[in-house]
Amino acid sequence: MPKKHLSFLLMDAPYEQARTTTGFRLVDAALRKGHDVTVFCYEGAVGLAFAKQVPHANAVHGRDVAQEDHPNPKDWVAALLTLAQEKNAKLVWIQCGLCVDERGVGECVPGAVRGSPADFLKAVESADNTLVIPTR
Amino acid sequence: MPGGYLLIESRDVFEGPTPFLELARTLAQEKREGPVTLFLVENGVLPTRRCPSSEALSALAKAGVEVLADEFSLKERGIGRERMIPEVKPAALDVVIEHMAAGKKILWH
Predict the structure, then answer these.
(1) Which of A101, A122, B92, B103 would give a disulfide with B1, using CB separation of 3.0 to 4.6 Å?
(2) Separation in Å, CA B10 to CA A112, B7, B40, B64
(3) pLDDT band per the 50, 70, 90 thresholds, residue B1
(4) Looking at the partner chain, which of B98, B103, B106 has a beta carbon nearest the beta carbon of A131?
(5) φ, ψ at B90 (rounded to 5°)
């Protein structure tokens, strides 16, 4: 299968929905096949790449930070950006600027860029296919 | 763009309407739009277990719809092949990417 450009729109905030995990899995699968990918994060999804997420301990279960090994989606975003480089694929991770400002999550992992819904339109127009994963 | 649809159903039939089952059946009957695949993911895989709700999936398969279920979602929910109706086939999530790359029309519910 020749290299394609696939775009995705994510809307769910981190730590809330299985859709986030599935969205990450889809981007991962596309990159592993060598496709170029554009992800547009809208509304709560802009929190996925927020750089100030921190792992936490779990006092209820008596586990420290290392034992809890709490996953943070910012690390998954960073891992996908790294994977793209390894696979010689292009991953553009766009954060809706208005959504970022509303939520005060301007500090993003390196590689995520600020944009607007107009950038999603451009991505759709240039992509071979697009999947919108809407929130409920 | 080549014909054909991939409909992704992520919701549990027990928690609310799942219009994609009806949409898949209608598209398959029309035939003009090309082959139709229904991909079940997350709680959408729950009716793959043999139960009254799985009858709708069996009917779709008999109508010509390819019905697939995400292996990861099945594993998360402890649904083994022995509990599933035979008309549904476990599949990797890669199927979605393959359909996207092939230019199929793709919708998520």
Answers:
(1) B103
(2) 27, 10, 6, 21
(3) very low
(4) B106
(5) -65, 145
Judged by a CB distance cut-off of 8 A, whether residue B101 touches chain A is yes
End-to-end CA distance of chain B: 22
A58 touches chain B (CB under 8 A): no
Q: What is the mean pLDDT of residues B5-12?
A: 95
Smallest CA-to-CA distance from A15 within A37, A58, A44, A51 is with A44
Triad A45, A48, A54: Cα angle to 5°: 145
Q: What is the pTM of this model?
A: 0.94
Q: Please give the ipTM for the structure prediction.
A: 0.93
CB pair distance less than 8 Å for A18 and B10: yes
How large is the C-alpha radius of gyration of chain B?
Answer: 13
pLDDT digits over B90-99, tens only?
Answer: 999 999 999 9
CA distance B36 to chain A (A): 16
Residue B98 contacts A, CB cutoff 8 Å: yes
Residue ranges in chain A modelled with pLDDT below 70: none
Looking at the complex, does the CB of residue B40 fall below 8 Å from at least one CB of chain A? no
DSSP letter for B16, please. Answer: S
Strand partners, A36: A5
Short-list B41, B80, B54, B95, CA closest to A17: B41
* CA–CA separation, B62 and B65 (whole Å): 7
- Nearest-Cα distance to chain B for A123, in Å, is 15
